[in-house]
Structures are given as structure tokens and as C-alpha cells.
Specification:
Elements lengths: L1 E2 L5 E5 L2 H4 L12 H7 L13 H15 L3 E5 L2 H4 L9 H16 L3 E7 L5 H4 L7 H18 L5 E6 L1 H9 L11 H23 L6 E7 L3 E3 L4 H22 L6 H9 L15 H5 L5 E5 L4 E3 L30 H15 L4 E5 L17 H19 L4 E7 L18 E3 L6 E3 L1 H12 L1 E2 L3
Parallel strand pairs: 2-3, 2-11, 3-4, 4-5, 5-6, 6-8, 7-9, 8-10, 10-11
Antiparallel strand pairs: 1-14, 12-13
Helix pairs in contact: 3-5, 7-9, 8-9, 13-14
């Protein structure tokens, strides 16, 4: 048995666009993902999703029965401030007000995330994250939400996975807002980090005792061989995927090798990034109370693949052994190694694994039971890696499974199922899977059972 200490945080995580639905209800404004869907770039437009906006009481009951101590959910910026920087929508804010009260009544600590990629379209129409004015709007939004809800929130999270919003949304164009321009992408990524820093300031401004953190996703990678070209490629990938975000958050500024690489590639001017103003890096690196870390897989990098996450296995059912249905290799040891690395290089006071999970499409059998043994094996192995990191001295203080519900997996729609709870996307019926019951036993015992 691998035991965790008293007070270890156990939870699950969701995001607003992926579960809420109610896309045009109660005064919510459009987001860039709504526009992306209207352009025909999503298989599911999110009008219903998991209908959490109407079924939240049922979902809180599922969380309570699961026994989690905390629940990480994102707040939809356009639901609360439809124009991004105008009047607050009382109905939208009221939804999160009621949700937080219900969580607390169930003995569950709310962990709100202010931004999980849902930028109000009204702000995108004026430049989006490429415009510095969006940073100011985000700081005002953060202050408004904290002022309304902060008396019941002990942990705030600012920005979730800025690499995805910045690079996939602005350089590769595969996520909203669908831009393909590296200059814009690096500017947007910087503004996302700056928005995080400004939100830290806004949340702490009232002088409350809430903890504040950011959620960074990671993609650990190593060279496929010891050939110098592969070593160089792996170093570049690490800078492109990890260090460009971790370094400035923890006070190191942007990494010199990546500044040189991006200059050589023509992505930033020869004199350096023209979007970094005096004081920006100090704001980005405001001290944190915790780091949220999202981990799913690790890669081997070869020369020519310096900026590719292609695993060679496409998403789909019946993946080869050792892969999830996202086509991602299952490498739990890389999580433990990365936790040790983060601790040794950056020294965050607390690390919480805020997303970890696997997509497998196991459905109800003839009895209605959902036997998702592969997910249980995945979670078991990754919790073992967390325990290993803790034993190595890493301050890992919590673990959240992605996700509570089978939801909309962005550009893959409902084809990928990450949930502990199976959702019939037509009837919205919820059914706990075997992994839900397994995780409930883990939480109740505060330990990982033997494989």
C-alpha cells in the first residue's frame, strides 16, 4: 500500500465549455469557441455538452458520493462578463455562486479556474490575446469574480494551460481562435502569462487569505537516440513546450536558447521580443502558493520533430498496447521524473497534479456496469509515480483526475471519453464507471491499493 499524508487533496477537474452547455442562455455572451463551432470547426457546437448548467445539482451529488475533498472547475468568462470587459451578468455569476455554495454544503472545497480558453468573442474582435488591452480586461474580470465569490474560495487558479491557448490557438491554428502566425502566437502567449500575474495581484489585492496558483501543462520529452541532432531536437522541444512557460513564471525570464532559436526562425525581431515591456517579467513571476501541473504523456523526439507532438498513433478506438485512445503513449514514470525536475529547478512551495487521466471508450455491458479496467490501471500507475515523487521529497500535495464526466474533447467532440462517469450524450444519463468506484476507495483509504 502507498499511503498519502493526512490532508492530501483528492479531486476531479472539469472545464466550463466542455460540460456546461446552455451556450446562449441567461445572458451569456459568445466565446471564441462558440465562433469556432459556428465556423464548422467543431464536431459538437457545445449548445448542450453535458448539460451541467442545468444538472449541476446531480453532478455535485456525484462528487459528494465520490468523496473528493476538492473540485476544480473553470468559470466561463463570457458567462460572467458577456462583453469581456463590460457589465457583469448577474445570472452568469449567480450560477457559480450557487455551485460554490452547494460544493461547500457537501464538504467539497471549490477550486475555481478563471480561464480555460474561453475568451469572450467581443475581446477577440479587438485583437484577443494579441492585444495588451485583453490583459487589463482579464485583471478586472478576476477582481470582480474574487470580490463576489472570494469569501468562500480558499484556492484560486488563474490561467489554465497557456501553451494550448497561445500556441495551438495562434501558431498552429487548430484550436480557437484559429490563427496561424508565430509572431501573434508568442505575443498572445506572453499576454496570457502577464494576465496570470495581473490576476495574482487582483486576487491578493483585498488582502484575503486565499491561495493562488497557475495551471501549466507539460510534455516531458527525451531524445530518441544519443545522436547530437536528436539531443538538440529534444532540447528545443523542451524549450518550445515546457521552459518557455515555466521559466518566466518562476522568475527566470524567457530561456536564452529559445530566444535565439525564435530569432533565427524569424518569429521575434533580432533585438528580442517587442511585446515584453519593463516590469512584465516581474509581474509574471509573482510568488505563487501552488503550481497546478497537468500531465498526460511523454514523447521521444528526433531531429525534424522539434515542435511536433505526433506520436504516430492517431486518436481512435482500439489503440495499440501502451496507448490511450487519444493515441498518447502511457508513460507514468515520466510524471514522477517531471515532478522531481520541477521541484529541483523551480522550487514551487506546493505542486498539485490538476489533470491526469486517460481516454477509453468502455461503455455499459449487459448489466449496465462500465468495466474500464484500462483507466484504473492508468490511474493506479500514475498515482504510484506521484507517491514516488513524494518519497523523493517533492511537495506534491494533491491529485485531480481528469475528468468527472465524459465531455466534449474540443476538436474531437464526444468521441473521446475521459470521465469517471459515463455520459449518454443523447439522454444525458450519468453512470459511474468502475474507475469511479475504485477512485472512491482510494480517497476513502488515502492510499493506492496494490495493482
Amino acid at each position: 500500500m502507498r499511503r498519502f499524508p493526512a490532508g492530501f487533496t483528492w479531486g476531479t477537474t472539469t472545464s466550463s465549455f466542455q460540460i456546461e452547455g446552455a451556450r446562449d442562455e441567461d445572458g451569456k455572451g459568445p466565446s471564441i469557441w462558440d465562433r469556432f463551432a459556428d465556423e464548422g470547426r467543431l464536431p459538437d457546437p457545445g449548445h448542450v455538452a453535458c448539460d451541467h448548467y442545468h444538472r449541476w445539482r446531480d453532478d455535485v451529488a456525484l462528487l459528494a458520493a465520490l468523496g473528493v475533498t476538492s473540485y476544480c472547475f473553470s468559470i466561463s468568462w463570457p458567462r460572467v462578463v458577456p462583453d469581456g470587459d463590460g457589465a457583469v451578468n448577474p445570472a452568469g455569476l449567480g450560477f457559480y455562486d450557487r455551485l460554490i455554495d452547494a460544493l461547500l454544503e457537501a464538504g467539497i472545497e471549490p477550486w475555481p479556474l478563471l480561464f480555460h480558453w474561453e475568451l469572450p468573442q467581443a475581446l477577440q474582435d479587438h485583437g484577443g490575446w494579441a492585444a495588451r488591452s485583453t490583459v487589463d480586461a482579464f485583471a478586472r474580470y478576476a477582481l470582480r469574480v474574487e470580490s463576489a465569490l472570494g469569501d468562500r474560495v480558499g484556492t484560486w487558479l488563474t490561467v489554465g494551460e497557456p501553451w494550448v491557448a497561445g500556441i495551438l490557438g495562434h501558431a498552429e491554428g487548430v484550436f480557437a481562435p484559429g490563427i496561424r502566425d508565430w509572431g501573434v502566437a508568442l505575443r498572445a502567449a506572453h499576454h496570457l502569462l502577464l494576465a496570470h500575474g495581473r490576476a495574482v495581484e487582483a486576487i491578493r489585492e483585498p488582502g484575503g487569505a486565499s491561495r493562488v496558483g497557475i495551471i501549466l501543462d507539460c510534455r516531458p520529452a527525451g531524445p530518441a537516440t544519443r545522436h547530437p541532432a536528436d539531443l538538440d531536437a529534444a532540447r528545443h522541444f523542451d524549450g518550445f513546450r515546457n521552459r518557455w512557460f515555466f521559466d518566466p513564471v518562476f522568475g527566470r525570464g524567457y530561456p536564452d536558447d529559445m530566444l535565439a532559436a525564435y530569432r533565427d526562425l524569424g518569429r521575434i525581431p533580432p533585438a528580442g521580443p517587442d511585446f515584453v515591456r519593463p516590469g512584465d517579467l516581474e509581474t509574471i513571476s509573482r510568488p505563487l502558493d501552488l503550481l497546478g501541473l497537468n500531465y498526460y504523456t511523454s514523447l521521444e523526439i528526433r531531429a525534424g520533430g522539434e515542435e511536433s507532438e505526433d506520436t504516430g498513433v492517431p486518436p481512435g478506438p482500439d489503440p495499440p498496447p501502451g496507448h490511450t485512445e487519444m493515441g498518447w503513449p502511457i508513460i507514468p514514470g515520466a510524471l514522477g521524473d517531471f515532478l522531481i525536475r520541477i521541484h529541483e529547478e523551480y522550487r514551487p512551495p506546493s505542486i498539485v497534479v490538476t489533470e491526469n487521466g486517460a481516454s477509453f471508450s468502455d461503455g455499459p455491458d449487459g448489466t449496465g456496469r462500465i468495466r474500464d479496467d484500462r483507466r484504473i490501471e492508468f490511474l493506479q500507475a500514475h498515482l504510484e509515480a506521484v507517491a514516488d515523487a513524494r518519497e523523493a521529497g517533492v511537495p506534491v500535495d494533491g491529485y485531480f483526475v481528469w475528468s468527472l464526466l465524459d465531455n466534449i474533447e474540443w476538436t474531437l467532440g464526444t468521441s473521446q471519453r475521459f470521465g469517471l462517469v459515463w455520459v449518454d450524450h443523447r439522454s444525458q444519463q450519468r453512470r459511474p464507471k468502475d474507475s469511479y468506484h475504485w477512485y472512491r476507495r482510494v480517497i476513502a483509504g488515502n492510499q493506492v491499493p496494490p495493482p
